[in-house]
Design goal:
Blueprint (H helix, E strand, L loop, with lengths): L1 H20 L6 H23 L9 H20 L1
Helix pairs in contact: 1-2
Length: 80
Amino acid sequence: DLSCVINALQKAHRILIYLKSTFDCKYEMSENLDALYDFLIGRIVQANLKKDAAMLDEIIPMIEDLRDTFVQADRNARSK
């Protein structure tokens, strides 16, 4: 259903905007993540404007990799 897809895109957009707002710019990695998040946000916005879910096929693996990285980082932090 189109409304579910639109809601999911809006939620993903809000999450990425929030993550961008949490950067600590003293780390070099922050610049790289900022550029990646800008790219992901741009693709989400374009997919939403064009109502073209196929545009998301390119970024879904990237987002899954980010998710997996955050999960692993959380596990590492909790085990210390």
